[in-house]
Design brief:
The protein is α+β, with helices and mostly antiparallel strands. The protein is built from 8 helices and 21 strands. The chain has a single domain, classed as TIM Barrel. The chain binds zinc ion (2 copies). One zinc ion (ZN) binds next to loops. One zinc ion binds next to loops.
Amino acid sequence: MKAQSPYLAHSTTCCPHVWIWVIVLFSLAFAGLPASAGEPASSPVTDTPRWWRGNLHTHTFWSSDGDAFPESIAQWYKDHGYNFLAFTDHGILLQGEQWKNFPNQQARTEYRKLFGDEWVQTRTNNHDGRIQVRLRTLEEFRPMFEEPQKFLLIMGNEISAGGHVVALNQDVLLVPDRAAPGGRYGSIRDVVNKVDACRASSGRSMFAILAHPNYTWAVSAEMMIDIETLRFFEVYNGHPRGNNDGDAHRASTDRMWDIVLASRLSNKNGKLLYGVAADDAHNYHGGSCGPGRGWVMVNSAQLTPEAILDALEQGDFYATTGVMLRKMSQSSGTIRVEIAPQEGVQYITEYVGTRRGVDLANTPTLGADGQKIPNATRTYSRSIGDVLFRSTNACSRYTFSGDELYVRVRITSSADHVDPVTAQSLGDKQRAWGQPMVLSEHRSPNNKE
Ligand SMILES: [Zn+2]
Ligand SMILES: [Zn+2]
């Protein structure tokens, strides 16, 4: 690859005014829809990839802490322009027989109203006389919602292993080893490896995502570096205690991502780490942890579990909390980004990267009292995760100079990030994150061997 200075990379004029409305219309049709949009349109089966919108982390009544029936949740996501949804309740798959007390009369009435008397199976709890309902399995309600090339439901679960791990497309429940050597680090590593082993033995597509590393400040960047089989993490989690942006002392998930990438890729065999955005929704009636806050846009021709997971593993997706893209690609050493702009909204596109030979020296992170913060991500050089180029245009590009370990795209919009259920601001701006890219001559561009 011929070396070219990144500073020669520049915002292009690929969106002249005459094309802007064409792109806007195209984007509305193909680049995913805002959270307030209606049911997704069906797309014919072709070999042409398109963007599919999906949420990879959702809780329901099957968990102890989700507050709606999975059928109502599937309906919400389908009604709001999503194409796929993964159910990831805590330590349980939506299969087998499961009874639950109705939380109140209103839930009982609503469930019957939405899905009919025949669908709602009840019994009286012998112990306390309360009315119980049998939760319908995913296989039972899947036919009510799934449509080819339009809407897909994926089985998964969230495994508590000190930190939390979301496993997608599982058909058996994996049990974490909480006594694994290495404490929390060892338990998370054990779960990630168990998911990979399950995949190898079953031949079924599946993988693990480290959920909300900064929730209770459970997982540091160093843990993610050392769990070298970990290939996905949540750069954005919609839970109000996800601490995505860190705090005055502790690193944001965005910063942790660069530390992991710089450390791993300085090693010749180091694996990329991909970042997803997910709701981790628990509350569907206006609570603090609602749906529609963060999602992924996956570039794939087919809407099947295998095709979606395969595209995710190829890094052919972006994470977003509202910024929508028409295009994000790399060819011939140039990354190209085209935002699907909203009228009156400004965007800052940053090409973030780390150069070869970067100093990986680090020190403990100290709190306001000057004392080391236990378990916090350590403090590293600001050359890790440097902004290599910045653009305020809807279309921009960056050409590798050849000495980058990786380059990734981060887009921040001037528009508030708003909860689509409560219409309240979530306190941040809408963002999007592209996946780290490397020059293909240096290493495989994706996580596959
Ligand atoms: Zn969790
Ligand atoms: Zn969760």
